[in-house]
Amino acid sequence: xxxxxxxxxxxxxxxxxxxxxxxxxxxxxxxxxxxxxxxxxxxxxxxxxxxxxxxxxxxxxxxxxxxxxxxxxxxxxxxxxxxxxxxxxxxxxxxxxxxxxxxxxxxxxxxxxxxxxxxxxxxxxxxxxxxxxxxxxxxxxxxxxxxxxxxxxxxxxxxxxxxxxxxxxxxxxxxxxxxxxxxxxxxxxxxxxxxxxxxxxxxxxxxxxxxxxxxxxxxxxxxxxxxxxxxxxxxxxxxxxxxxxxxxxxxxxxxxxxxxxxxxxxxxxxxxxxxxxxxxxxxxxxxxxxxxxxxxxxxxxxxxxxxxxxxxxxxxxxxxxxxxxxxxxxxxxxxxxxxxxxxxxxxxxxxxxxxxxxxxxxxxxxxxxxxxxxxxxxxxxxxxxxxxxxxxxxxxxxxxxxxxxxxxxxxxxxxxxxxxxxxxxxxxxxxxxxxxxxxxxxxxxxxxxxxxxxxxxxxxxxxxxxxxxxxxxxxxxxxxxxxxxxxxxxxxxxxxxxxxxxxxxxxxxxxxxxxxxxxxxxxxxxxxxxxxxxxxxxxxxxxxxxxxxxxxxxxxxxxxxxxxxxxxxxxxxxxxxxxxxxxxxxxxxxxxxxxxxxxxxxxxxxxxxxxxxxxxxxxxxxxxxxxxxxxxxxxxxxxxxxxxxxxxxxxxxxxxxxxxxxxxxxxxxxxxxxxxxxxxxxxxxxxxxxxxxxxxxxxxxxxxxxxxxxxxxxxxxxxxxxxxxxxxxxxxxxxxxxxxxxxxxxxxxxxxxxxxxxxxxxxxxxxxxxxxxxxxxxxxxxxxxxxxxxxxxxxxxxxxxxxxxxxxxxxxxxxxxxxxxxxxxxxxxxxxxxxxxxxxxxxxxxxxxxxxxxxxxxxxxxxxxxxxxxxxxxxxxxxxxxxxxxxxxxxxxxxxxxxxxxxxxxxxxxxxxxxxxxxxxxxxxxxxxxxxxxxxxxxxxxxxxxxx
Amino acid sequence: xxxxxxxxxxxxxxxxxxxxxxxxxxxxxxxxxxxxxxxxxxxxxxxxxxxxxxxxxxxxxxxxxxxxxxxxxxxxxxxxxxxxxxxxxxxxxxxxxxxxxxxxxxxxxxxxxxxxxxxxxxxxxxxxxxxxxxxxxxxxxxxxxxxxxxxxxxxxxxxxxxxxxxxxxxxxxxxxxxxxxxxxxxxxxxxxxxxxxxxxxxxxxxxxxxxxxxxxxxxxxxxxxxxxxxxxxxxxxxxxxxxxxxxxxxxxxxxxxxxxxxxxxxxxxxxxxxxxxxxxxxxxxxxxxxxxxxxxxxxxxxxxxxxxxxxxxxxxxxxxxxxxxxxxxxxxxxxxxxxxxxxxxxxxxxxxxxxxxxxxxxxxxxxxxxxxxxxxxxxxxxxxxxxxxxxxxxxxxxxxxxxxxxxxxxxxxxxxxxxxxxxxxxxxxxxxxxxxxxxxxxxxxxxxxxxxxxxxxxxxxxxxxxxxxxxxxxxxxxxxxxxxxxxxxxxxxxxxxxxxxxxxxxxxxxxxxxxxxxxxxxxxxxxxxxxxxxxxxxxxxxxxxxxxxxxxxxxxxxxxxxxxxxxxxxxxxxxxxxxxxxx
Lengths: 948, 583
What we know:
- The complex is a heterodimer of chains A (948) and B (583).
- Chain A contains 41 helices and 16 strands.
- Chain A is α+β, with helices and mostly antiparallel strands and 948 residues long.
- The longest helix of chain A is centred in the last third of the chain and has 25 residues, at 696-720.
- Chain A starts with a helix and ends with a strand.
- Chain B contains 20 helices and 26 strands.
- The radius of gyration of chain B is 36 Å and the shape is elongated.
- With 583 residues, chain B is α/β, with parallel strands linked by helices.
- Classes of the chains: A alpha+beta (948), B alpha/beta (583).
- Chains A and B meet through strand 3 and helix 20 of A and helix 9, helix 10, strand 16, helix 15 and helix 16 of B.
- Chain A: It is found in: Cytoplasm; Nucleus.
- Chain A: Belongs to the Integrator subunit 4 family.
- Chain A: Residues 803-945 form the Integrator complex subunit 4/Protein SIEL C-terminal Ig-like domain.
- Chain A: It comes from Buteo japonicus.
């Protein structure tokens, strides 16, 4: 590495020198520009940045052409961004360049550079103060670009802490808010926008904005330019969150209202703005204004209807009345909607500054972006206000008929989210159920999810839902699973409503025996799922069952155990005793068991190796069994079992007996140890990437285990290879890894006393200077002597799982296609607890000839039906040369990982000055790999030879 | 404001009133209102047609070919494409079926269309040296536009018919903040605020769906263009979504041709159609097929769109007679029906209809009414006014009583004056035209450099010379003006005497004045010169004792006219006297 360093030192000055030579050579501005452009493509090392900057500055003063100066200014900014370079040494020079600059564009660029420098030196208040002062000086510039940048600079660097501003007695200590606020009335809309954005920036940085800005911001809402209005809406929202309870006067009256209500009204008004960008912005922000009074909130859904000046009831009100009067919508009369009472002309306010009808407008907007934003806002507001939820129901139901599928889907999801707060009326349920016929699978499944958590008020409602679901089932048989699941929840939620329906549903008769229905009929199973789940909390129900129903129950309980609950039936014993949900996790006996068994392992350290091994083996077995029994603890149990397994492998591989055997037995021993090392590595990657909820505490332990496995690998290699040369490299690499481990987890090291890495770091000075053979020896003893680290468990831990629903792998009919052409295979899978599935989940296809194909599904193929769950519906293209007979291929899902993406290295990888910069050392040994996490499914295919 | 533009707008208004008058008394409007015996071409700069509905373009061939007009006619591209089809159909019905004479011929329609200039949305068309027009999207029907008509800095926006709520095939009307002097708006629904469109659509679909599921037939009488396309799209997408199989038919003829243009003018439709047409043009109906007379007797469910919309004649009436007897069937009236038509009768609940030849038809089928109107409601009109921010509003195309209400609301909420002239009434609107003046860049830069940045709240004082020459106005610096006009510079000074009661010596008085001014005028340079005078910037102040009364001092204040502002301020300050302090 010494050689390497000296090489660097040689090249460093030459870089800036070359630039200098180039720039001097340039005969015309165009030439110089070319050189600069070329120069900008290459990265510059941290050490040579300052030199390059000096040379650039020198040329800056000499240069007459504004475009070249502009490029130099932009390069200065780019260079100051270089990681590891502290730009305070060039700040004075950069400020000085501003003094004599005439071109507005260059000035703006220079200010941008100062902004970059400032953001790198945010820790230094005096630097910030100075830059802000410079910016204030240039605020009077006649060019909008310069003013723009100045405001940006003030926004990013202006003093946020009150105390500091007082200490530093200078011009800039003036109130930054006042300075920025003065530019709210600038003549240029771009500057006005920049001023508002700067204000928002200050807010984000933690400055408490003054309430006085509110009235200024309100005026900006009427600006001619959409970007100003859009930013102003944001500012008003911020202020409404800061001062919700302040009182503001209503203009042209003596009344006063809360600020948050006033702001809410104003933002509502912007929902009917002329520009759709502003409308989207306004609609989005409405959702987060939860402090608004319910009186204002409910106005948003009210649009006073009238016809020829007479008050008219909305269709929603009419539907409600019809329902409450017990009469179902006849809709047969003309003038059903005939206007009722006369309206006092003076009282009608056609455009209210208030919130009136904001959501009615938003939901009817011509742009679907606005409609989606409105639906989302509606959802958020309804979640916090049950009475509002009740009111907005009709509007959401209406959105189920939107022309854009995304909007329909969004409104169904929204409805599901607020369904705890509401009970559907029968006519609403009717409209909701009508959507079940939709041809889009996403819509239908979202609707099933919705029905799972819907409250229905009458038994007719349940019956209606069942009938519609069965209709859905006959029309789209593929929805089977989803419909069954839906009925399961519907049944368990409404046992008393299902009870009176049972005889009808099972078509039992008090006197006659009815024919036994077909057990394989999905519709019949659907009905049974509904009834059995209702029967769980309704002990009188089984009395209504006929004999075959009991038989069917027994069958379904076995075949569809996830849908059919255990029932207390006459003459039957309840098998498992379910844990009552009221027990908190800590009191849970199985949780206790888990912790006790781990405790046992961690405490018994000084047992003889044989004893340790046996204890580990038993504990692993216990844990695995526990995971199978207790699904909520499965993640935790598997995770710890894997860790113990790693430890067990390590202990086995290190057994002294084996290492001292005679030379002929080396071979077998080596194979065992290297296999163990390999497996440990694999298991650690699984532990790190396959579980959601893993915290940094666990990551350290996992990395530590990996380090041990690598040490083991090194030892094994040292014993098998002849010669020292290859070992040199390996040792160095290993030491580098120890080093990077130390850098990543420096804060965790104190908790790792007595561990492998702890001991290793103590020995580090010795290791660096030792020969490889010695290193290996040290490693071996350290490995043996180090203690077994305690693995702390996080609150929640879930293992990523995948289940391929389609293809089912049951088909005996081969999928025939012409060789050389492609055939599309529909893949449908559910994923649980996978973080960022779009980036990590891949589909693997294995052909009988050993050829493997890896497919990256499109991001749009992943749906997110609920927290922690994903659904992959995609098409996989298969192709192969001709076969003589059909054969099976395997399809499975893989979880891809990259050790660089891990939480540990994310800390180190900071943004660099350009993408072209050479990869950092960490990424060189970044290991990419895949973990299979679904059962493989076999698909029968047959590529036929092409016909000529 | 008497402008050619005003005339043009007036003409479009006259054209828009065409159908009403045609229904009542005569066929075409009386264009002599405009000319008072002269050639139309001399009086009009151009004619603008806002959209293809016959009440907006029905009299066009008569006007251009029979009365005689040779100037340009402006319309949007879709209007230009569809308009001749409708005119031809209109001519056929009037001449061929009703046998009227003295009507325009097919050739006249062609000749008239040759005079048409097509415009794009937001394209500014320079009609002549002064007059320019610009089209904005209006919703309502395909190709409907609102027009801004502008002369110099005065402008009028004429809306035609417009719709502020989007529907299944068109977007909402939109206009920028063009701040016209006058906005002429239709006001069909001046006193109505409509319910959400979605409810109506849902009801409509539900009814159709239920009837079809029962095995019944649905008849929807429509007019060929406009609403028909909207309903087709609505049903088409619903059939698609719900995977329905029952056939939908559309009576052929006029619609087929027009549908062709709907497919072409995708840019004029709503977001959904515009975004998805690459995959599939929504107007290429999969489920909707051409109707044949024989299909009406087919068994099983079906949906039929048939013309005309009020069930007064033609195919829709024929089908109605066939299906009326079965209670499983349904007729849905999607719009307004004129009194006396079959449509109106069944909507008002008549169950026994007397047909031609004393035949009694018993109506057992269900009758539904559903309003799908494409005019802006009161809220929509207000919204448009809010968007455009006009200085005056003029309401047309509505009933006087209803307009009165809206007028009151507009004046109350926007504080602009609103007019609603009756037919033949003249309204005079006063405007504040701004007069453009060219300023030399040097002067502008010099003047803006003095003082602070421009502030919206305070008007800024500027010094320069206004040169009015050859119908143009120029603002130049005084030096340049002198040079251009070949004049020598004269200096103008104002001198003013201010009497002050002060028994002290002259120089003491001067010192007092000096201290006082220095205290008040902090931002100016106040100097005390050795000769005993004071200067404030270029203003000179000298003090002498009054020749008669030694206790009175006379302050001589002298300033150039450039410093008039400061000078007069100073004198008024001095007239107030000096503060009583002894210092």
